[in-house]
Design a protein that fits this description.
By secondary structure, the protein is an alpha+beta fold. The chain folds into 2 domains: 75 residues, OB fold (Dihydrolipoamide Acetyltransferase, E2P) (Beta Barrel), CATH 2.40.50; 148 residues, de novo design (two linked rop proteins) (Up-down Bundle). Helix content is 37%, strand content 25%. The chain contains 7 helices and 8 strands, in the order βββαββαααβββααα. The strands form 2 sheets. The protein has a 5-stranded mixed β-barrel with strand order 1-2-3-5-4. A 3-stranded antiparallel sheet has the order 7-6-8. The longest helix is centred in the last third of the chain and has 19 residues. The chain binds zinc ion. Zinc ion binds next to strand 7. Zinc ion (ZN) binds next to strand 7.
Length: 244
């Protein structure tokens, strides 16, 4: 059976002299693992379309449980991500999170749109890494069903005022009046988190947050994600090491 869909290569591992195994996040079938025979041969037309981070139109051939790339035509290579080790590492972290959270064998258009939009913002410099990293983390957790409860105070039920507290292990917020174990966040940060989790995809990027608040948000969202995942991420460790 053959089927066609668009997808981005999350991972590519070489097998033998000329073959590759790809992990592709596709629009219609979620994460697909497929052999790309001959992909490494220099003149293969599949060569560039099967590189990591390349967004391509794929045709897969399915034989029982295994998939083979029948054809691949690149749509967007995001090649300029390679100009910056910081950008490239962050992109690889996004790929690692997609491998972790995106579904298999079912449509994953929201997951695909999230990574394509974030890579576009990253490569064009329209949004900073500090803006995109927590946005990606909180949004993919929300898509996967781990949205924090950012509504009223979890203790008294009141809307938090200018200062709120976010409980990283419980994923809830508290107001400033209730004693709580949370991390202090401004109203601006709380509103940004609410927007990231609930805004429609086309409005996801249209908010601003001061540099210092982005630092706080980065720390919170990373800790919240690691708390949910319960294991480290190789690309995240590498990315964080670049800034020490
Ligand atoms: Zn309260």
């Amino acid at each position: 059976m053959k089927f066609s869909t668009d997808g981005i290569v999350l991972k590519a591992s070489d097998v033998g002299d000329s073959d590759r195994v790809l992990t592709v996040l596709t629009k219609d079938y979620g994460v697909v693992r497929a052999f790309a025979n001959g992909a490494k041969r220099l003149r293969s037309s599949k060569q560039s379309a099967t590189q990591p981070l390349c967004y391509s139109h794929f045709t897969f051939f399915q034989n029982r449980d295994s998939f083979v790339v029948d054809d691949a035509q690149s749509i967007e290579t995001f090649f300029r991500l390679r100009d910056s080790i910081e950008n490239l590492s962050l992109a690889q972290y996004f790929c690692e999170l997609e491998c972790e959270y995106a579904p298999e064998t079912e449509p994953a258009e929201d997951y695909l749109r999230l990574i394509l939009n974030c890579l576009h913002m990253l490569v064009t410099g329209k949004k900073s890494r500090k803006f995109l990293k927590p946005l990606f983390e909180l949004r993919i957790l929300t898509l996967a069903g781990y949205m924090p409860d950012l509504g009223a105070c979890a203790k008294c039920g009141e809307e938090p005022g200018d200062t709120a507290y976010f409980d990283i292990s419980a994923g809830v917020v508290y107001c400033g009046k209730c004693p709580n174990p949370g991390v202090k966040i401004s109203k601006g940060i709380l509103n940004a988190m609410r927007r990231i989790c609930t805004a429609p995809a086309e409005k996801l990027f249209s908010f601003e947050l001061a540099e210092k608040s982005l630092d706080t948000l980065c720390g919170i969202s990373e800790r919240y994600l690691l708390m949910q995942a319960r294991h480290p991420f190789k690309a995240l460790d590498f990315y964080n090491k670049l800034f020490f």
